[in-house]
Amino acid sequence: MSLIARDGGKSTLLISIGATVVSGIPAFLIGALFTQINGDIGIPSWSLGVIVATYWVFAALSSTPSGRLTANIGSRKVIILTIVVAMLSLVGAALVTPSWQWFLVWAAVGGVATGLCHPSTNHLINLRVSGERRALAYGVKQSAIPLASFLAGLAIPAIALTLGWRWAYALAAGIAAVVLVVFFLVGPRRLPKGTVRKNSSAPLTREQRVYFLTLASVTTLGAGSAACASTFGVVSAIEHGMHPAVAGVLFAAASLTGAFMRIAVGALERGGGNTMRTITVMLAAGLVGSVLMAFTREWAFGIGLVLVLGVGWGWTGLTHYVVSSTAGRATPAATGLVQTGSYLGCAILPIVGGALFAVWGSTPIWYLSGVGFLVATTLAIVVWRRGAPAAV
After folding, report:
1. Per-residue pLDDT reduced to its tens digit, 296-325
2. Which residue, 160, 151, 9, 44, is CA-closest to 94?
3. CA dist., res. 312 & res. 286, Å (int)
4. Which one, of 62, 18, 56, lies nearest residue 336 by Cα?
5. Exposed e or buried b for every residue in 11-41, given b needs 16+ CB within 10 A?
6. Roughly how many angstroms between the first and final C-alpha of the chain, as a whole number?
7. Cα 307 from Cα 293, distance rounded (Å)
């Protein structure tokens, strides 16, 4: 069976992946390249959490308005805006960073890009991908996030240790430019036949809003706990005694595992009310990984990082599937709500982790991450048992 069953679906998926990669990579590059940036311009250890938090705060602030913007002007225009804003963030970081404070500016710009990305790309997938294959489509699209961190990890041995960290940002900006060109060449140019834009979205019902607020609590803690690993994973690995190149390769391997996992669980998903159960199990795996990362042994840390980034953060495509299958025509509004929770978690936990890192090193971060995964798993069980409201 073909993955795509509606007109323009293949190009939709391709462009969604590209937009997600280029809007997500600013958040991962700063953590992956922190050691090299610190050696060049000097950057305090506590600021890493603040910079990453800035990215996610602006993603949260722009997510819900992006849902409304998508409903008003259409997904295509918002996706173009996403890529342009992401490119601005990467070019700025490469060329205009005389001091570390400038990373706050470019992180904010990158956060706006990712806030624009998900409501628009999810709405486009919901319109153009057949329902029975939509879980796989979301899994493939969400695999772009660990793909972005995979590229950030590879940037350490391939670029940062040879040409310098600024060239890593410049190369990422070049990738964004290529994605924009590809969009204009092969991207979807019109809505599918029979789709009327003014009726393609709807507001959330009261029952749906309560359900998605609870789901947002799950994503807040789950994504925030995993974001601690994506932010501090490399510097913590170096603290454990790993060479920076080895730490980068480990980070890339964990990210690639996450990309594979998101596609795999999407391919295996067939609905039937078991999606939240799968999400619960994956969050529990993240809890185990966080515990292992708190050990001083390099092998335990490595396995833990793979569990957290590979499995513990592998559920995001499934949550988008839950949102689209439950919200129906209210998908842009529901995505904005749930993604806001994810973004807030990715802002709050890393900033707390940064404070812990500055005082006690990286080990307390993994205790924080473990507690977050524990509460997220508990809330996921509640959502699973409660069941989803009817779609509109």
Report:
1. 899 999 999 999 999 999 998 889 888 878
2. 160
3. 4
4. 62
5. bbbbbbbbbbbbbbbbbbbbbbbbbbbbeee
6. 27
7. 10
CATH superfamily assigned to domain 9-190+199-386: MFS general substrate transporter like domains (1.20.1250.20)
Q: What pLDDT, on the 0 to 100 scale, is given for residue 206?
A: 82
For the chain, give every domain's residue range: 9-190+199-386
At 131, list the tokens: 């329902």
DSSP 85-124: HHHHHHHHHHHS-SSTTHHHHHHHHHHHHHHHHHHHHHHH
* Amino acid occupying residue 55: Y
The sign one gets for the Cα dihedral 252, 254, 257, 262 is negative
How far from the centroid of its chain's Cα atoms is residue 37's Cα? Answer: 23
Instruction: Give me the chain's average pLDDT, please.
Output: 87
CA-wise closest residue to 156 among 90, 229, 236, 247: 247
- Asked whether the beta carbons of 207 and 326 are under 8 A apart, the reply is no
Which of 79, 91, 98 lies closest to 21, judged by CA?
Answer: 79
pLDDT, tens only, 210-238: 899 999 999 999 999 999 999 999 999 99
> In angstroms, rounded to a whole number, what is the distance separating the alpha carbons of residues 65 and 270?
31
Angle 297-145-276 from CA coordinates, rounded to 5°: 85
Q: For the whole model, what pTM was predicted?
A: 0.82
Q: pLDDT tens digits, residue range 369-386? A: 999 999 999 999 999 988
> Rounded distance, CA 317 to CA 312, Å?
12
- CA distance linking residue 364 with residue 381, whole number of Å: 26
Give start and end residues of each alpha helix (H) in the chain: 9-32, 34-41, 47-73, 75-95, 102-128, 134-142, 144-155, 165-186, 206-239, 244-268, 275-293, 298-306, 316-327, 331-360, 363-386
